[in-house]
Amino acid sequence: MDLSLEGLVPSRRTLLKSAALSLFAFQVAGCREMLTPGEAQRRGAALQVLTSEEASSLEAFGEVLVPGAREAGVAHYVDANLSRSIGDSLLTVRYLDVLPPHDVFYKDGLRALDAAASELAGRPFAALTAAEARPLVAALLPAKVAGWTGPPSPLFYLAVRSDAADLVYGTRAAFERMNIPYMAHIEPPTDW
Length: 192
Hints:
Order of helices and strands: HEEHHHHHHHH
Helix content: 40-55%
Oligomer: single chain
Radius of gyration: 17 Å
Structural class: mainly alpha
Number of helices: 9
Number of strands: 2
Strand content: 5-15%
Strand order of the largest sheet: 1-2
Shape: globular
């Protein structure tokens, strides 16, 4: 299967093929490569939409919500999808009646999360210990974070948790690691 990026603008067909394999186009050392989000994170691929501070907060938040999300490359996954057209995005927010642009949703949510962490512990969310982060995360779902200024906190929690869960658990390889039979309603044409 040819997943080349001639002209750096992949066709919709290439995007769909790459999504089936969980591959996205990332910039690494000045070259565009098709990588999984985890590979992109490990190789230091450039972010296109999120800042490094936003990515750090998203990785820390995703890791609290779904252990393994940081290693799986949750920030690069979200960033890669935010850089795509809305119709090609795999992010959960697309199905939650959140009006585009979706980068505003994530950036505002991460900004509010960091503000709440700073209010709680004097540091951004990425700098919190797990023990400090858990009560803050637990307060998001019932919308009990004082002074929250981002999108509705339960919606932000749900979107990021769903994205992280899709990335960590939504592949055939993940089902095999968990020793669970992979029984898709509709079999994907290729392994992810």
